[in-house]
């Protein structure tokens, strides 16, 4: 793992490990609940990419915003939305972060700085530019981090949104999570360049590559991009090389990628890597790490209990919240 | 009272709202550049001198970007007034308007609001298929969007000011033949109705229709330019002893059903006039709902007078054939009596 350019506080390291583990265990739990038929809908699981969400959000303040995608659970955990509210949303309960109106693909809570996830590929990119425009015009030093996948970088919205953020020097950090596949299609079949970061040069902004399987690499790149954004110097595109360990969605048979490839990336799993690094560098003992695991399990169990025991919406609640002020 | 064109009324509304609230700003193509157009129909002309280019913000030619940035700016605490040069270009930004602007409040369980206005000029003006469409129905169809379609200077000003203050996304449609744009942006065949606009401030609430002409025999409802076509038809009909009541809904979402239904209950007949093609359109919906809600009061089937179901043709002869007009409305009314 890379040496950090900035000294990272012990509290932050602990939170990083906790959040990455929570994001992973949340997905494993969600997957199980889906298989058992306890949750409605579909689900796009984030397992494998935790270092990206946590590395980026660790470099943000609570009042900074993020935009997210159809694969938002990890982002929501990393931005600090209570796990109970996330789990309750998966269960379509009124106590969910979107009160049962959003579900898996629209997780978010603006009170924690997360715009409800936009599940249209690339759709969040111009929106993030607009948030950046507001933060700049209102003379705040807030920034917005915009998560999107490799597939989104081929959308027209990517071009329009990144270009506008660039020409107006907006405080946006464009975070591309390159997990190599748009559903089943390999990135090499839809892109002529090797790195998405290279696309930044077309907009006259920095394009940086981070190791998306190393939370400290992502954190480091983000800290630099955030400093640039807060100081008024404009956006940065960070490409995080990462991998999703599970299928695109819950019904993906995954016959488009080899066992060897999957094993290779699993050997880079960011969570055991961070654990080893934390112990090796004497930030934490193995026992202290074990206690984080226990804490995560306990919270997750409580979240599932809370979600199961929460009330469902009434059918006619569907009529509310179409417009502002019609809500509960 | 002083008279203003619709362009002047819209400009005044924008100016007043920008003075009142620092968060209000305009975003669009060619809206601020000194020496430029001031928007395709001159609505924002001169405003950048007063407010600066940061608040009359010129964009790249990137409609998805304009709408997306407006959505984001609204989330971030501003109140954007976005515009497109021609309503037809709204189709380039449909994802942002339909999937983001209209749904984020709902998806968030009511926690997020998207206070943005999207202005769009519509209407056939011999610009052929891609610069002439009337397309309000597309947006009326989308839950979560409010839709305004005013046709007088007074209403344009009062409704635009209300739209800016609304916490929901508003599609604000303006008809090219009603603007009263001057100089090289003047339109051939324009009606350009200059109307009374008081000096003092006023707002017009959404969802309140106006009865433009009273009558006992038939109700005619239109929107934008077709309100004037309906009034022309009513004049012709009156000479033949048929008194038509003409209703201008002013906003399509929310829609003032009370005013329309009480008129229909009085006259027993309804003709809906629309510059959009008829298939699955606004006129069909108004007709269907009226039939559901006031069937017992109707003495005849609801009739629609719409554009024909083709792209907007270029040749003026064909365009005239395409569009609803007073004669077609008169014929429709007579078929009911």
Instruction: Please describe the biggest sheet of chain A, giving its number of strands, its sense, and whether it closes into a barrel.
Output: 5 strands, parallel
CATH superfamily of chain A, called what? Thiamin diphosphate (ThDP)-binding fold, Pyr/PP domains
Helix-strand pattern of chain B: EHEHEHEHHEHEHEEEEHEEHEHEHH
Query: What topology, given as strand order, has the largest sheet of chain A?
Result: 1-2-3-7-6
Low-confidence segments of chain A, ≥5 residues, pLDDT <50?
none
Structure summary, number of beta strands of chain A: 7
Based on secondary structure, the structural category of chain B is alpha/beta
Number of beta-strand segments of chain B? 14
Radius of gyration of chain B, CA atoms, in whole angstroms: 19 Å
Structure description:
The complex is a heterodimer of chains A (328) and B (337). Chain A has 10 helices and 7 strands. With 328 residues, chain A is of the alpha/beta class. Chain A has a single domain, classed as 3-Layer(aba) Sandwich (Rossmann fold). In chain A, strands 1-2-3-7-6 form a 5-stranded parallel sheet, with helices on both faces. A two-stranded antiparallel ribbon of chain A has the order 4-5. Chain A is globular and about 50 Å long. Chain B has 2 domains: 194 residues, Rossmann fold (3-Layer(aba) Sandwich), CATH 3.40.50; 127 residues, Rossmann fold, CATH 3.40.50. Helices cover 36% and strands 18% of the residues of chain B. Chain B has 12 helices and 14 strands. In chain B, helix 3 packs parallel to helix 4 and helix 8 crosses helix 12. Chain B is globular and about 60 Å long. In chain B, 59% of the residues are buried. The chains are: A alpha/beta (328), B alpha/beta (337). At the A-B interface, helix 5 and helix 6 of A face helix 3, helix 4 and helix 5 of B.
């Amino acid at each position: 793992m890379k040496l950090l350019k900035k000294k990272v506080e012990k509290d932050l390291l602990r939170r990083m490990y906790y959040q990455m583990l929570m994001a992973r265990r949340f997905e494993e739990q969600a997957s199980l609940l889906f298989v058992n038929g306890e949750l409605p809908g579909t689900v796009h699981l984030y397992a494998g990419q935790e270092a990206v969400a946590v590395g980026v959000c660790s470099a943000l303040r609570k009042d900074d915003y993020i935009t997210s995608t159809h694969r938002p659970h990890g982002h929501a955990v990393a931005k600090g939305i209570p796990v109970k509210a996330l789990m309750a949303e998966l269960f379509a309960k009124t106590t969910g972060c979107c009160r049962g109106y959003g579900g898996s693909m629209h997780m978010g809570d603006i009170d924690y700085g997360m715009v409800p996830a936009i599940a249209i590929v690339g759709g969040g990119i111009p929106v993030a530019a607009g948030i950046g425009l507001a933060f700049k015009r209102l003379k705040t030093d807030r920034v917005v981090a915009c998560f999107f996948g490799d597939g989104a970088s081929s959308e027209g919205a990517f071009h329009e949104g990144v270009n506008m953020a660039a020409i107006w020097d907006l405080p946006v950090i464009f975070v591309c999570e390159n997990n190599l596949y748009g559903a089943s299609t390999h990135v090499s079949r839809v892109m002529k360049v090797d790195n998405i970061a290279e696309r930044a040069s077309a907009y006259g902004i920095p394009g940086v590559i981070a190791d998306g399987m190393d939370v400290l690499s992502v954190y480091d790149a983000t800290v630099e991009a955030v400093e640039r954004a807060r100081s008024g110097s404009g956006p940065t595109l960070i490409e995080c090389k990462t991998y999703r360990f599970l299928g695109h969605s819950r019904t993906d048979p995954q016959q488009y990628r080899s066992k060897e490839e999957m094993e290779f990336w699993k050997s880079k799993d960011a969570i055991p890597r961070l654990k080893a690094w934390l112990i090796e560098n004497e930030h934490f003992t193995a026992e202290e790490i074990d206690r984080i695991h226990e804490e995560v399990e306990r919270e997750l169990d409580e979240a599932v209990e809370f979600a199961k025991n929460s009330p469902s919406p009434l059918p006619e609640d569907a009529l509310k919240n179409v417009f502002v002020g019609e809500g509960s | 009272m002083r008279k203003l064109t619709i362009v002047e009324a819209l400009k005044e509304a924008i100016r007043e709202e920008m003075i009142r609230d620092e968060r209000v700003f305009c975003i669009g193509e060619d809206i601020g550049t000194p020496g430029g157009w001031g928007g395709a129909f001159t609505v924002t002309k001169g405003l950048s001198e007063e407010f600066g280019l940061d608040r009359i913000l010129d964009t790249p030619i990137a409609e998805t970007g304009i709408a997306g940035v407006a959505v984001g700016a609204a989330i971030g605490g501003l109140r954007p007034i976005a515009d497109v040069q021609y309503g037809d270009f709204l189709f380039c930004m449909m994802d942002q308007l339909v999937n983001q602007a209209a749904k984020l409040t709902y998806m968030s369980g009511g926690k997020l609001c998207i206070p943005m206005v999207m202005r769009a000029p519509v209407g056939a003006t011999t610009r052929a298929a891609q610069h002439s469409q009337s397309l309000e129905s597309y947006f009326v169809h989308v839950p979560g969007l409010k839709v305004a379609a005013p046709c007088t200077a007074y209403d344009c000003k009062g409704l635009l000011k209300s739209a800016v203050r609304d916490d929901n996304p508003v599609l604000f449609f303006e008809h090219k033949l009603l603007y009263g744009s001057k100089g090289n942006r003047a339109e051939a065949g324009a009606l350009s109705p200059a109307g009374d606009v008081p000096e003092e401030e006023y707002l017009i609430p959404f969802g309140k229709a106006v009865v433009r002409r009273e009558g006992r025999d038939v109700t005619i409802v239109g929107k934008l330019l077709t309100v004037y076509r309906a009034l022309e038809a009513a004049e012709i009909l009156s000479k033949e002893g048929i008194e038509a009541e003409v209703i201008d809904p002013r906003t399509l979402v929310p829609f003032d059903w009370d005013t329309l239904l009480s008129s229909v209950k009085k006259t027993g007949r309804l003709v809906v006039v629309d510059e959009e093609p008829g298939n699955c359109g606004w006129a069909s919906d108004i007709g269907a709902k009226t039939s559901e809600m006031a069937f017992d009061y109707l003495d005849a089937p609801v009739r629609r007078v719409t554009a024909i179901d083709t792209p907007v043709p270029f040749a003026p002869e064909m365009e005239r054939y395409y569009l609803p007009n007073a004669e077609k409305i008169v014929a429709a009314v007579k078929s009911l009596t």
